[in-house]
Amino acid sequence: MAQGAAATRRPTQAIPVPGRMTVTLYVNGVERKLDIAPWTTLLDALRLHLDLTGTKKGCDHGQCGACTVLIDGRRINSCLTLAVMKEGARIVTVEGLAKGDALHPLQQAFIEHDAFQCGYCTSGQICSAVGLIAEGKARTADEIRELMSGNICRCGAYPNIVTAIDEVLSTKAAQKPREARP
Amino acid sequence: MNNFAYARAGDVADAVRRIAADPAAKFIAGGTNLIDLMKENVARPSLLIDITQLPLSRVEDTKDGGLRIGTLVPNSDLAYHPQIEARYPLLASAILAGASPQLRNMASTGGNLLQRTRCMYFYDTTTPCNKRTPGSGCSALEGINRMHAILGTSQHCIATHPSDMCVALAALEARVLAAGSGGERSIAFADFHRLPGDTPHVDSSLRADEIITAIELPPQGFADNYSYLKIRDRLSYAFALVSVAVGLEMNGDTIRQARLALGGVAHKPWRDRQAEAQLAGARATRESFLQAADVVLRDARGFGHNDFKIELARRAMVRALTQAARATPQSQADKRIR
Fold first, then answer.
1. By three-state DSSP, how is residue A57 classified?
2. Which end of chain B, N or C, is surrounded by fewer C-beta atoms within 10 Å?
3. B236 vs A131: CB contact, 8 Å cut-off?
4. Is the separation of the CB atoms in B122 and B159 below 8 Å?
5. CA of B102, closest CA in chain A: separation in Å?
6. Which of B4, B99, B235 sits opposite A39 (nearest CB)?
7. CB contact under 8 A, B39 and A150
8. Is A137 on the interface with B (CB under 8 A)?
9. CA distance B85 to B291
């Protein structure tokens, strides 16, 4: 089969390669200049060009959420984002959440509530939860579940993920009075 | 993904000029569907024209009391926009029923209209598909067609349009504003998406050199009596098997005006004016709703695996009409059906 396919394949000498482009990203507070092809996704730029491998490639099709990062404070799927389209953007990955040795409250809560098993989806879950809290739309466990549905956990750690996020949300709410629900 | 060139459009005229100059070029905004299609080699553009720098991100009042939504407004911003929440909650609800928070943060208003079917044969380049490769045949007709259309199909294509937002826009009688080489025009939502016929590779009436600049909503938003009910294989982050958008204008328990559109059942958001006319003036009873559902489904046809959609659509319509009449719209947060 492989031989047959190889025999019918045409020589690839004449494929034009459009030029690489320069893009500047601010990743976890650090200016990073990249020289990349336009078809490089933000996910590949982070993992392959910047060695920030905390962001995971799961499905690579926007169906699992493992690649979730924050762009200008909003959670997005980095696998469906072209890096060249994000000139000047502020990007936060899981590597940028802790302050020195002090973990982000969500990282701490995920550990305390055992909110993962294999851990592959965890960086996406945590970045997504950071976005969710910033959005301010989730107040109940039902709303957390719904607004975290873009992050799939193959191990099924969902109950503990919801508990961990709920705890951080409740702590935040206790620190400042909640707005009345509409 | 194929190699492609990349350019940023400076203004709308520049965007139109660039797309008119290269038939294999494509616009990109959110990219949530296009990049996926490129990874599957279903889309192979020569040039991507980045339109995200264009000044088309505003939501503003129109002279007639409606709302104009810039094509680049992200789906999440639109769903949570105070004017949309207050005046067009049907639209807000439909948007929140679709995709995931991450995808809604990325996806643009115009791009939502232009997303392509999720028919698995369209995505699978090893199988015939008239939408992907005109004239190659339809694999879904005799294949696994559980997700496929029951209304307005042709012997060439039984794919469905995947959008939730568009089902609400159809019910609300939105208009699509487009700019092209020939100037600007406004397209009624019902005329924007099309049925497959013998040209299923053409999804919409947007011309090759046109760009969507905005969506306009008329003043009537049906904010008191509405519901968006979406039935799917899991409670969130899945495409519709059947969805129903309902907007009612009530006078006591009599329906003054009705809007009824379905998703997941056709090549376009399926709106039936005959069923709507039958509901106008009727009392809001289960019998009236069943009769309207029968009108909508009069020509429905299954293809084997999706036969269940006909009865599912009937029940979903009755449920959504009941929810709208009682002013107890479907919650997109807990999904409990009341």
1. coil
2. C
3. no
4. yes
5. 4
6. B4
7. no
8. yes
9. 31
Beta strands in chain B, from DSSP E residues, in sequence order: 5-8, 25-28, 47-50, 59-61, 67-70, 175-180, 183-188, 211-217, 225-231, 242-251, 254-263, 270-271
- Residue B278 belongs to what H/E stretch? helix B273-279
Identify which of B332, B108, B333 has the alpha carbon closest to the alpha carbon of residue B228: B332
Contact A84 B6 (CB under 8 A): yes
DSSP state of B330: P
pLDDT score for B336: 82
Listed in sequence order, the residues at least 6 apart from A177 whose beta carbon sits closer than 8 Å to its beta carbon are none
Q: What is the mean pLDDT of each run of 10 residues along chain B (338 residues)?
A: 95 98 97 98 97 98 98 98 98 98 98 98 98 98 98 98 98 98 97 98 98 98 98 96 98 98 98 98 98 98 98 98 98 85
The residues facing A69 across adjacent strands are A76
Q: What is the DSSP string of B191-240?
A: HHB---TT-TT--BS--TT-EEEEEEE-S----SEEEEEEE-SSSSSS--
A27: helix, coil or strand? Answer: strand
Cα-trace Rg, chain B? 19
Cβ-contact A115, A137 below 8 angstroms:
no
Whether residue A135 lies within 8 A of chain B, CB to CB, comes out as yes
C-alpha distances out from residue B14 to B8, B17, B106, B179, B224, Å: 9, 5, 23, 11, 42
Q: What's the pLDDT score for residue A13?
A: 52
Chain B nearest-CA distance from A174, in A, is 23
Judge whether B123 is closer than 8 Å to chain A, CB to CB: no
- Average pLDDT over chain A reads 90
Q: What is the pLDDT of residues B49-84, one digit of tens each?
A: 999 999 999 999 999 999 999 999 999 999 999 999
When pLDDT is cut at 50, 70 and 90, the band that residue A15 belongs to is low
Instruction: List CB contacts (< 8 A) between B46 and chain A.
Output: none
- Report how far residue B195's alpha carbon sits from residue B201's, in angstroms, rounded to the nearest whole number: 10
Cβ contact A77–B332 (<8 Å)? no
ipTM, 2 dp: 0.97
Asked whether the beta carbons of residue A137 and residue B105 sit closer than 8 angstroms, the reply is no
| Beta-sheet pairing, A74-77 with A90-92 | unpaired
Task: Read off the tokens for A63.
Answer: 């169906």
CA distance A165 to A162: 5
Asked whether the beta carbons of A91 and A42 are under 8 A apart, the reply is: yes
Q: What is the DSSP letter of A10?
A: P
